[in-house]
Amino acid sequence: MKASHEGWVTQLLAMFLRSQQTGLTRPLRIRMAIAQVEAVKFARGSVMRIMLLLLLYVILFTGFILFHVGLFFYLDWGLADKGALFMILGGVYVLLMVLFMMFGLSQKRWMKKSGADRAVIHALRS
Questions:
Q1: pLDDT range class, residue 23, cuts 50, 70, 90
Q2: pLDDT value of position 118
Q3: Structural domain includes residue 59
Q4: What is the residue range of 94's domain?
Q5: Would you say residue 42 lies in a domain?
Q6: In angstroms, rounded to a whole number, what is the distance separating the alpha carbons of residues 30 and 41?
Q7: How many distinct structural domains can be found in the chain?
Q8: 120 CB-near residues (< 8 Å, 6+ apart)
Q9: Per-residue pLDDT tens digits for 30-45
Q10: What's the rounded Cα separation, in Å, for the pair 74 and 77?
């Protein structure tokens, strides 16, 4: 008799836990769905910003090329003088790009601007 009561109680308890499991996991599933929607929104925004940046680079590069072509035809200098001018301009552009890359992509600068350096220090002190 006791064994039949244990089986009945176990089955009743199992049914109760299954019904509660659905109710307990529902908020978690909702949070996961919201996080997934936010991740898709972030990824879409990132792709859109990258595409816009690429478009701006294409426009900038086109203007850069057209400026130099126009300068080449406008100047009433000899070919050697024009060549020297464009070599100097090219060197200046490369130097500016290297300086921009050094300052713009520095990990130390990114850590400081994002506040991650303070977060790391705070986490290590706690």
A1: low
A2: 87
A3: no
A4: 80-126
A5: no
A6: 16
A7: 1
A8: 111
A9: 888 888 889 889 999 9
A10: 9
